[in-house]
Amino acid sequence: MSAGTYTAAILIIGDEILSGRTVDQNTPWIAEKLSDHGIKLREVRVVSDDYTDIIHAVNELRAHCTYLITTGGIGPTHDDITAAAIAQAFDVPVKEDPEARKILEDYYGTTDLNEARLKMAAVPEGAALIDNPVSGAPGFKMENVYVLAGVPRIMQGMLEGFLDGLAGGDPMLSNTITCDLFESQVAKDLGTLQSGYPDVSIGSYPQYRGGILGLSLVLRTTDAALLASATADVIALIENLGGTASAVNIRDEETKARDTG
Questions:
Q1: How far, rounded to the nearest angstrom, does the alpha carbon of residue 209 sit from its chain's CA centroid?
Q2: Is the pTM here over 0.90, yes or no?
């Protein structure tokens, strides 16, 4: 990992994702937030509610990324084993956290804080709690591993609470160019152009809109001047091949903030 480069992995934990009963809504949201914060997402992995699978994935991913974000498996039911598995990954015991218990008592009341709910106060020894502004039960952090709920709305509230505290680089900028050419028509020249812009990611994605087959070319980099230069060259490439470029869409963190009010 080079100096000034910040990376992340996402570990999605849950049999319900692997079975297809639940659609993963968390990855796109987390990926966009990380990109806006200048953190490059390197890998997304899905594992079952299995101790061995979780421990192996946590230890592997946390070793080669700046941050590992896990979602799922920290609820009150018998198959919520993420906290215990992560404790094993760090070779520490699971203990009831007094602060977590107090949070649950305040949220549920002592009368309704049953044994199942109290399970959510048990975290690996040495963990720091992550605030849950939606449903009370906290997540937790172990070194560079951030353990969040799987329910999208709850996960989002947790992540928003600590994201600004993460070290990151420059936000990722992107331009999208649509054209009326086929991928095969631009492949050779686009490959040559890409070799001249090693710090710009250029992807091509066929599209079918309004009964017309076309192509979207997406350019991504943290350097605004480099992005502008590469975009101009891609437009010129399309026009030289007899195509028409349209809908150049410049997106960055500031633009998205304005769009969402």
A1: 28
A2: no
